[in-house]
Design goal:
Strand order of the largest sheet of chain B: 4-3-2-6-14-15
Number of helices of chain B: 17
CATH class of the domain at 215-364 and 382-481 in chain B: Alpha Beta
Order of helices and strands of chain A: HHHHHHEEEHHHHHHHHHHHHHHHHH
Distance between the termini of chain A: 44 Å
Shape of chain A: globular
Number of strands of chain A: 3
Oligomer: heterodimer
CATH architecture of the domain at 215-364 and 382-481 in chain B: 3-Layer(aba) Sandwich
Helix content of chain B: 25-40%
Distance between the termini of chain B: 99 Å
Number of helices of chain A: 23
Strand content of chain A: under 5%
Structural class of chain B: alpha+beta
Number of strands of chain B: 19
Largest sheet of chain A: 3 strands, antiparallel
Helix content of chain A: over 70%
Structural class of chain A: mainly alpha
Radius of gyration of chain B: 28 Å
Shape of chain B: globular
Chain lengths: 528, 482
């Protein structure tokens, strides 16, 4: 019977994943909010169903009750994340939340299958990281000074990377991590984010060549230190991210061209300078030529993908553990072997959906700095996905980076969760702003209102602690929004948003917007 | 914490997101590239990867499935796994030595069909119900059965016909590419591969484990004159019929002298009789007349210096001639000596192209795969590799090859109930100072509608007429008498 269940579940998992992925893209066609909300809900149902089916198989194969408990813990965690995120931040991008949870689910399933002990550890790290991640959007919305601190980011980033290059312990020749009280930290994962903030700050006003040159020099320093630490994957990610941000900031294709030329030159130089790079390129060109040493890992990865074929062998029916470092660098090959290449293609599409949302959000942002941060984080994410999957399938040489949220690795999981949360924060920021713009338009049309504040309208200044709301009379009186929703009968006699009720703790806004859901039905929800 | 006006700086007019659009499409393209490559791996690379010698994935399945059987086209078991009462598994090869190379072995590494079909033999496509029944009985399911194109009866006949000679026989159907016979000698008994292993791998002189039919590289000798003739016909499409040569058994150019075999004097002859009598001096003259580059292009079109269109492990045949080649090289190459080397499988393919009216079919060994409870899993169908010569060219070559049987070097094949067209070869070789002659025959039977193509080589067997032709005769006889 077990055999039958495993065989049937194999196809079921693929169908569920395919439906989920399909909806990641059909959501763009949905016009009404109800349709979209319903679709997001269906995605959640599919995800929980997939999680359940996969763990049924894992339980049947492992035969231990602890697996069931672990399953329950994971399911509760996923439910809590979905509920908390949507309740705390009703304006967050649901698609991005769903995708984040889906990737985490796939990671849970595969790491549990590969190593139960590691999966328990990973679960703890992810749960803790999620708590951190949940605070991030608030910080992004409230701490506006972060847009100004790019020199600080640059120093911290370079400092941390240099520290790694000098002092970190080396794993397989690459200097990557520190051990701190039993936890291994990989600073480059976090510098990735700081770095995006740094280059966004350096380039936000990049109009003259001098500024571009300074930014390029500092970015190159990051990359150089990473190359010296032999952390090739991160070096490529930092490099590509810089090119993307530079292009978006300057719109100058020649900078990008020059960057690509310089990058190719540097790569060629590195190829002749460093033997470990040559080994990887050789293994990529012909994995079997040097099978025992350089080519072993990639050969095993290819064997895995071939063994899995379209529909996979089914969980526990393959042997992905034959690939060295499978749970970190070759997660995709393990997935392709046991869950099949169709599932793998869906996974690539889900990652692509995340990236599209990152850029989509960047497109809506009007503040240059935030815009560059969003696109920079998107480029970081997409490049990393490309490097790890492309490396695993031998499209490009292997660089040894993780598949974000799916692979095993605490630092990677935490930094990716932070990354997603930052983008969510930016998204909500934008939606705050849109609301405000709408009001602005409204006021401009209705001349009876004086201009907002001294010196005109300040786009970035809209924050929860803006005490002028109530005082100056821009409140939400019945004349603006109609008495049925925002009239005093609901919120008290107009004083609710006054200074006395809003002590400036920074959370007034959220609360206010939470209450404002009915208004959201209006045309302002163009984005989701 | 209000900041100073950080320019929201949305450029005027539309297109504010053009650059983001470019970024999106760039990464979009990279993601599609990954998906495309993954599809490519699955569609075009998976089989090679699954049957790679380095791939040990399937070994895991040996604990899960009983290795499937290999059966011949006439329903004989060529390899099967027998399970004793105590669960010990034993791989049995009922035909022992006769199929040693083509079927191969599955312990001490894997070879032949055992390696090629390893994946299928260790995969069970039996119905779910059968698998559940096995699971409930705590039995391992049986892997799929591989039904091959080999004909056990004909293979045995060819194996016996080759006798004590080292060498190889390949027989195939010209219009389908099905390989019916693949014999290689010296051979071994795969039933005892484990005991024999030490002696087999330490023996460096006779290379017993080498499948000579696909991996043995031999000088083609006069059998190569088929291609030389074709090259000449293509170079002189109007004049080849007027070719005339007076054979004095000897032709010299520079310091190279070509002799006819046994110094026979063939006298005045045209192209057809030069071909039928395998006149070396006439063909040496043709070699001098042929443009080296064109000849080389033709040979490469016929897959010299290239891999054959098959998954079977095989050696690459060699042909060396170019614009700078000396007269000597031109002459020796034209008569199939020189640096030219060919595998018996390749010669069979060339012959079958002539027999099939100029179209080369892809050779194949696996006819179909079925689950052990009879469900069909997959089926191979004949597939055309390429048209390599026109029907007219094939017709002319067939006519010449038939003349070889009627009046030339292969007359021993005439006078039976079936017609044969062929070409003999006596390939001279030197090995460690020993000068010998390999005996070749390539040809096909039932010339009007060819049934069977044969390529026979008997190492050190003397002339083609002496040894290879009688072997071929026995095999044709077995084919038509069964």
């Amino acid at each position: 019977m077990t055999n039958l269940i495993i065989q049937v579940s194999k196809y079921l998992i693929i169908i569920l994943m395919a439906l989920y992925t399909f909806q990641c893209f059909t959501v763009f066609r949905k016009r009404s909010d109800e349709d979209r909300d319903f679709l997001f809900l269906r995605q959640n149902v599919l995800m929980f169903f997939l999680h359940f089916v996969a763990f049924t198989v894992l339980y049947l194969e492992m035969g231990e009750v602890t697996v069931l408990l672990f399953y329950a813990a994971q399911a509760v965690y996923l439910a809590v994340v979905l509920i908390l995120y949507t309740k705390l931040y009703p304006k967050a991008s649901r698609l991005l939340i769903n995708n984040m949870c889906m990737l985490i689910t796939v990671g849970f399933i595969m790491i549990t299958r590969l190593s139960y002990d590691q999966s328990v550890k990973q679960f703890q790290i992810i749960a803790a990281s999620t708590v951190v991640a949940l605070i991030i959007p608030v910080l992004i919305r409230k701490l506006r000074f972060i847009t100004k601190m790019y020199w600080f980011y640059t120093l911290v980033g370079i400092g941390l990377l240099a520290l790694v290059a000098i002092a970190a312990q080396s794993t397989n020749g690459a200097k990557l991590s520190f051990r701190l009280g039993g936890i291994s930290l990989q600073p480059s994962e976090f510098v990735k984010i700081i770095y995006v903030f740094a280059i966004a700050g350096l380039l936000k006003n990049a109009r003259d060549f001098r500024r571009v040159a300074i930014a390029t020099g500092l970015a190159a320093l990051h990359v150089l230190i990473l190359v010296v630490s032999k952390d090739l994957g991160s070096a490529v990610i930092f490099f590509v991210t810089y090119l993307v941000v530079l292009f978006v900031a300057t719109r100058n294709p020649f900078y990008v061209l020059a960057g690509i030329l310089a990058g190719s030159g540097a790569a060629t130089g590195a190829y002749f300078l460093f033997s470990h790079i040559r080994v990887r390129v050789q293994a990529w060109k012909d994995p079997f030529a040097d099978y025992q040493v350089g080519g072993y890992q990639i050969s095993q990865s290819l064997f895995s993908i071939a063994a899995g074929s379209w529909f996979g062998t089914g969980l526990y029916q393959g042997s992905p553990e034959a690939i060295p470092y499978v749970e970190q660098d070759f997660m995709f090959s393990a997935i392709a072997e046991e869950l099949g290449s169709i599932f793998g293609i869906c996974l690539i599409l889900v990652c692509m959906s995340c990236f599209i949302m990152f850029v989509n959000i960047a497109m809506q942002l009007t503040n240059r700095f935030y815009r560059l941060v969003a696109v920079g984080l998107g480029a970081t994410y997409a490049t990393q996905v490309f490097l790890t999957i492309g490396g695993g399938i031998k499209l490009i040489p292997m660089t040894g980076v993780t598949l974000p949220l799916v692979s095993y690795g605490g630092s990677s999981a935490l930094s990716t969760l932070i990354m997603f949360s930052i983008v969510q924060g930016l998204y909500m920021l934008q939606r705050d702003e849109e609301k405000k713009n709408e009001r602005k338009t409204f006021y401009q049309e209705d001349r009876s209102y004086p201009p907002y504040g001294p010196g005109g309208y300040v786009p970035d200044g809209w924050s929860g602690r803006d005490q002028s709301y109530g005082r100056t009379g821009y409140g939400y009186g019945p004349e603006e929004y109609g008495p049925e929703n925002y009239g005093p009968q609901e919120y008290g006699s107009g004083g609710y948003y006054g200074p006395q009720d809003d002590p400036g703790d920074g959370y007034g806004d959220e609360y206010y917007y939470d209450q404002e859901e009915p208004y959201e039905e209006g045309p302002d929800r163009r984005y989701w | 914490m209000r900041l100073e006006n950080e320019t929201s700086d949305v450029p005027e007019g539309g297109g504010r997101n053009t650059e983001l659009g470019i970024v999106t499409y760039t990464f979009f393209f990279l993601f599609l590239l990954m998906i495309g490559y993954l599809v490519y791996l699955n569609v075009w690379k998976a089989e090679d990867l699954n049957s790679s010698a380095y791939n040990t994935k399937q070994d895991v399945n040996e604990d899960k499935y009983i290795r499937g059987s290999i059966v011949s086209s006439d329903g004989q078991i060529l390899a099967e796994t027998q399970v004793d009462a105590d669960g010990t598994e034993r791989r049995v090869y009922p035909y022992a030595n006769a199929f040693s190379h083509v079927v191969g072995y599955s312990s001490n590494g894997k070879s032949g069909l055992e390696a090629l079909c390893n994946n299928d033999l260790l995969t069970s496509n039996a119905s779910i119900l059968t698998q559940i029944r096995d699971e409930n009985n705590h039995e391992k399911s049986r892997g799929d059965t591989v039904a091959v194109t080999l004909d056990a009866g004909l293979q045995t006949a060819a194996y016996q016909a080759l006798g004590d000679y080292n060498g190889a026989v390949v027989a195939m159907e010209p219009d389908t590419g099905k390989i019916l016979v693949m014999v290689s000698k010296p051979d071994f008994d795969p039933n005892h591969i484990e005991e024999l292993w030490e002696s087999l791998i330490t023996d460096s002189t006779s290379s017993v484990l080498l499948n000579r039919a696909t991996q043995g590289l031999y000088p083609p000798g006069s059998t190569f004159k088929i291609l030389t003739t074709l090259a000449y016909i293509r170079q002189e499409p109007l004049d080849y019929r007027n070719f005339s040569f007076d054979c004095t058994s000897e032709l010299s150019m520079d310091d190279v002298t070509i002799h006819c075999y046994n110094n026979t004097v063939h006298g005045q002859e045209d192209l057809k009789s030069a071909f039928a009598h395998s006149c070396n001096t006439a063909f040496a003259q043709i070699g001098l007349d042929l443009d080296g580059e064109n000849f080389s292009d033709l040979a490469e079109e016929f897959l010299f210096n290239d891999s054959l269109p098959t998954q079977l492990q095989h050696s690459t045949s060699r042909f060396v001639l170019n614009g700078q080649s000396s007269y000597g090289e031109h002459m020796t190459t034209a008569i199939g000596q020189g640096d030219t080397l060919v595998t018996p499988l390749h010669m069979a393919l060339l012959t079958s192209t002539v027999a099939n009216g100029g179209i080369m079919m892809r050779p194949y060994l696996v006819d179909h795969i079925e689950a052990y409870d009879g469900n069909s899993v997959s089926e191979n169908t004949p597939s055309r590799y390429k048209r390599l010569m026109t029907t007219e060219e094939a017709q002319i070559l067939t006519e010449y090859m038939q003349e070889t049987v009627n009046s030339g070097t292969a007359t021993a094949l005439g006078g039976y109930g079936y017609t044969v067209a062929g070409k003999t070869g006596s390939a001279e070789y030197v090995s460690d100072g020993y000068e010998g002659t390999h005996s070749w025959f390539v040809g096909f039977s039932n010339v009007q509608d060819p049934d069977l193509v044969l390529a026979v080589i008997a190492e050190d067997g003397g002339t083609g007429s002496e040894t290879a032709v009688p072997i071929a005769a026995q095999i044709f006889a077995a084919y038509y008498n069964s």
